[in-house]
Amino acid sequence: MKILRLAAFALGPIALVLSAASAQTIQINKENRTIAVTSTDKVISMADTAKLHIGFVAYGPDSDSAYANGSRVSNAIVRALTGAGVPNDAIESENQSVSPVQEYQLDKLTPAEKAQRKFQVTQSWTVRANANDAARVLDVAVKAGANQSGQIEWNLKDENALDAEAAAKALQHARAQAEQMARSLNARLGALLYASNETQAAPPRPLMRAMAAAPAAMKAEPLAINPRQIERSATVYAVFAIE
Hints:
It is built from 4 helices and 9 strands. It is α+β, with helices and mostly antiparallel strands. The longest helix has 26 residues, at 159-184. Helices cover 26% and strands 35% of the residues.
């Protein structure tokens, strides 16, 4: 929980007692002349950055052949990405391995296909890009051989700004509620004595499944991918003096 203390001074006989239970209800207390309000609000903004998960699997009849195939595909993908304007420092390795193919993975293959898939090389990266470039970057990688790609995480360059905006909106809502309550008591709302806010995490976002690379002869357009909206909500507990 993020705690924001907005006033560190006492106002005469005003006494503040805060507890977990009090933060869940609206309180009116004429004796200590305070009003406590809990308010929740949210803000929504379109994602401006994307983290793409790019990867491939390549096969070979033996370890050396699989490695050679994997090296060819690996370098082709990175060259395609950098050639499309993706900076080197925006391409980060996730994992890579050379391993035998398990028998259950070969069950539906012909004997000839099984002979060519004894070993496999897998590799993956995360690629950071502007949200509006996600479809183009994914298209470039897939057409270069990234046949295990498609997962995208949508984010904001400055997520703290959205959290702060949600908290400010909730606090504004809390003040409006407190003013209405003060009027019902024939009183005037005074200074804000204390406020705390808790920003709620965004729900999990659906992610695209892996996709196969398009055949070289096909000139398919990039997939129609649109950035997702990012939502942040904040719950504010605020205590005001009344006069």
